[in-house]
Amino acid sequence: MSAASPASTRSHQGPTPPAHLGGGVFAELVGQEAVVAQLQSAVGSGAPTHAWLFTGPPGSGRSNAARAFAAALNCPEAGCGDCQSCRLVAAGSHPAVSLVSTENVSYRIEDVRQLITTAQDRPQGYRWRVIVVEDADRMTERATNVLLKAIEEPPPQTVWVLCAPSPADVLVTIRSRCRHVSLRIPPMEAVAELLVQRDGLTAEHARFAARVSQNHIGVARRLATNAEARSRREETVALPVKVRSASQAVVAASKLVSMAQAEAAADSEARLSQEQAALRRSLGLEPEEKVPPKLRAQFKRLEDEAGRRAKRAVTDSLDRTLIDLTAVYRDVLSLKLATGAELVNEHLRSELTELAEVLSPEQALGCLDALNTARVRITQNVPPALAMEALMMQLIPRRHRG
């Protein structure tokens, strides 16, 4: 378990946000006007509910909404985004706000007990001690039961904010004690406008990034600003058109896993290097100074955490790949059914039209089922190479009659 670091927390500094949102910590919650109004009302009341559950599909911005709420609760101006308190939350270093995530498959009971201890501390000069728990759906039933009493009887100045994909992902005993905030995937136009205003993209590039990311703000930003990420995605979505045999399927599966592993390793190595440098500074060690034996355990702990992160990063990267492939077959199905809707992969319309001529609607649906099965498998300790090979074999087009 780890608190969000400056490197992993999105900054609220930068270009002017869209005019219809105004400034402040809620500026990036595009397409969530009802949610923003609900949270601002709670902040303005001066007596917010002690436990909240933020839900929404990936890309809805539930974690960003939780952070913005935490910042607003402790801001003298209810979330200005510019004061020291707001900047500290954005940097993940606010003394009264804990932004908690896990690099493991699930939260450990020890992690939850540590949170409960933190919740007992007074906010030390701030209005509220806020504990934001990302991926609360990763809590086991035993860990959730440990948390239950703390949520039932919280200290007077503590606010819990749990984040999960849906209410059903959290035990009913927790769900019933939280005020629910439901976020939705923002409209493509709102995401594109944010990218133009905040990141300085052209309207054309912003709309492309918003569309192919399926309105996921974080993914859209990465695709818009990272040429390598765009290249990886284009390689991924081209596979269904190229794979025509078992041997090609095996090669394609290996390539997808290799790309995910390389991306995870690079990210993990960069983060580990930063963490080791920070630890050296805190311990008064020079960059090239040999680590004394009595301090080696601390560095070993960082290396172990990096290894766990890399494993989860591979799973997350493959899941994003499967989401991109899912969009391909939804596009194919849209073409088969002549819906007339804009395709997610509109720039590949001609190639997808050729694929649609090979597949029947039933076969396209079968491919979507196979992709969903693969997404489940990679979260259940099935070796990634095995899961992806099984998937790619099922995606080989088999010409239908009629």
TrEMBL record:
Short name of one Pfam family: DNA_pol3_delta2
GO molecular function: 3'-5' exonuclease activity; DNA binding; DNA-directed DNA polymerase activity
Residues of the AAA+ ATPase domain: 48-186
EC number(s) on file: 2.7.7.7
Top class in the EC scheme: transferase
Gene3D superfamilies assigned to the protein according to its UniProt record, in alphabetical order: P-loop containing nucleotide triphosphate hydrolases
Polar residues compositional bias, start-end: 1-14
Keywords: Nucleotidyltransferase, Transferase
Keyword Heme: no
Keyword Nucleotidyltransferase: yes
Positions of region (Disordered): 1-23
InterPro entries in alphabetical order: AAA+_ATPase, DNA_pol3_clamp-load_cplx_C, DNA_pol_HolB, DNA_Rep/Repair_Clamp_Loader, P-loop_NTPase
Gene Ontology BP term (one): DNA-templated DNA replication
Protein name, per record: DNA polymerase III subunit delta
Lineage summary: Bacteria, Bacillati, Actinomycetota, Actinomycetes, Micrococcales
